[in-house]
Amino acid sequence: MTKVSAPERPVEEWADDVKPIFVIQGLLDSFGPGSKDTTNCSYCKEEGETTPATSWCSVCDDALCERCIRVHQRIPSSRHHDLVDLSGETKVKVNRKVMCKVHKDENIQYLCKDCKTAVCQTCCIIHHRKCGLVVEIEIEIPAMKTELRKNKEHLLKKHDEMKTYVGKQHSKVGEELARYVQIESNIKSASLTAIEVIKAKERKLLSQLKEMSDRHIGQLKADIKSGEMPVQMYQQQTELIDQALQSECDMDVFEMYQGCEAGDVEAVVAVEVKEKGRIDGITFRQDTDKLSRAMEDLYLGEIHVQYDDVVDLEADLVLQDTINVRVAGDALEGPPHDVTMLEVNGADAVVVTDSNNNSVKSFYTRNSQPGHSKLSLEGGPYGITRLKHNQVAVTVPDTSQIVTVEVSPDLVLFSTITTSKQYWGITSLTASTLAASSESPPCVDFLDMSGHVLKSVCPGHNGGDILKYPSFLCTTRTGSILVSDGGTKCVVCLTPEGDVVFNYRPTGDSALKVPRGITSTSTGDILVTDYSQHRVIYLTESGQFIRNILTSQDGVYCPLGLCVGGRGRMYLCALDGVEVLTSCK
């Protein structure tokens, strides 16, 4: 990597800052512009003459003719220089003179070991006179060559190791190909016995697919047809405006202007594309458990119709269900702290953190039967975030750990990450990057999956006191991080680089008292719970207050974490469990 002097300037002004790699530089030295000419006399060339060179002075680094040799040998300072005969097959190794960038006429002859910079004599006098270790480069060359030889030996060793590794991998490829052929034969043999049953199932599923696909396409074609007339009307009205603009009659312009002011120009019926039970997408889900249980009851899968999952925040939210998170073996009662929802293996799994009972739990319905799974941990879990379609990450501040859990929808511990801090809130940024919040010290850290801190945002960042007790995090659709901070009583939006996008800290009725759970919808809207004021507030994507969508009058008390999940539902951690809410016109 090269730091250029002025990247904002035209490229030709800083392109010379970018140095070639040493291989290319060697070629430039030998063959490129500025390489030494050993054919003609260097001194005669300066006088405008072309005289064949017969000798080379290795000290002056110049080619000389017979006449200049005699002059060269009469000068006391060069009388004893070593001369090499250029006749015959003798080859001369040309020493490259590197000129100082600042003092163009001086060679670089010295090395400042304090500054780790090669400099000329004038640079030493002006800029490095206070440095303690300025030596001639020549003196350091033997040590440098010794180090390069060590590097070469190390690289050769790595080369041999990698060559051995590649050889082993070649052997494994052969073994894997043989294994593949055997497994392929086994699979084909097993599938032949079930092919008749599979064909019948296939015909049934294809029939369902065609029925639902025809319905979906029909809805889309109806949308197109209902939108064609407004398109024509808008086109006609645009043409009328064009005629008025081109008319030389002032009254034509005035009448058209009055029509626009009155709204007549836009009096077109809006196309209503949303309807109850409207298909949003079609997928195919396979239940491998049913497939393996019984060949006589062979089950390939089912057509899953995906409806609009967006929660209508302009409508009222109604309580659809309450999930009781208390299960057998729990010693204590208490609300879950955080929640997320995953769709796995044909089931909607609601996964919560239960710090009172040191466990992560999932609740789901499979084969029309409700079920649950409990994974016990060494400490009380707090924050939760979805990593993949079937995996979550959970903070365990008591033990300074982050655990990853697979959801099938039953829970299985996948990995344990030991961290340097006690993290509370957590959110997934990418497949390999997390953001987690700490209260001591207060900060939001960006982590890799080994727990290494890549970047840290602390109080005073960008000149503002933005963090005191950051407890809940979430990621927006644009990749920014939302932080719910109970100490500053605000919501902070940070970029992946740690810069502040906005800081929501209002006063009056919309002021936050104890902000807790936070989530962002697929449309960018933000939902925040206020624990002590028993409400859920609705903010725009830019952090502007819209309204309270849930309050104590709706039966909300001490809300904590929340998320928006499948089929237009919102999941809210409350005192009596997880409340499942849907929008209702």
Give the key terms:
585 residues, 8 helices
Architecture blueprint of SSEs:
Blueprint: H1 22-31, H2 42-46, E1 55-57, E2 62-64, H3 66-74, E3 83-85, E4 110-112, E5 117-119, H4 121-127, E6 134-136, H5 137-193, H6 195-246, H7 250-262, E7 279-285, H8 288-293, E8 302-307, E9 316-323, E10 338-344, E11 347-354, E12 359-366, E13 369-376, E14 384-388, E15 391-396, E16 401-407, E17 411-418, E18 423-430, E19 433-439, E20 442-448, E21 453-457, E22 470-475, E23 481-485, E24 490-494, E25 500-504, E26 515-520, E27 526-530, E28 535-539, E29 545-550, E30 562-565, E31 569-574, E32 577-584
Antiparallel strand pairs: 1-2, 1-3, 4-5, 4-6, 7-8, 9-32, 10-11, 11-12, 12-13, 14-15, 15-16, 16-17, 18-19, 19-20, 20-21, 22-23, 23-24, 24-25, 26-27, 27-28, 28-29, 30-31, 31-32
Report on the architecture of this protein.
The chain is of the alpha+beta class. The protein has three domains: 11-138, no CATH class; 196-307, no CATH class; 338-550, TolB, C-terminal domain (Neuraminidase). It has helices at 22-31, 42-46, 66-74, 121-127, 137-193, 195-246, 250-262, 288-293, and strands at 55-57, 62-64, 83-85, 110-112, 117-119, 134-136, 279-285, 302-307, 316-323, 338-344, 347-354, 359-366, 369-376, 384-388, 391-396, 401-407, 411-418, 423-430, 433-439, 442-448, 453-457, 470-475, 481-485, 490-494, 500-504, 515-520, 526-530, 535-539, 545-550, 562-565, 569-574, 577-584. The longest helix has 57 residues, at 137-193. The radius of gyration is 38 Å and the shape is extended. Mean pLDDT is 83; it is low at 268-273 and 298-308.
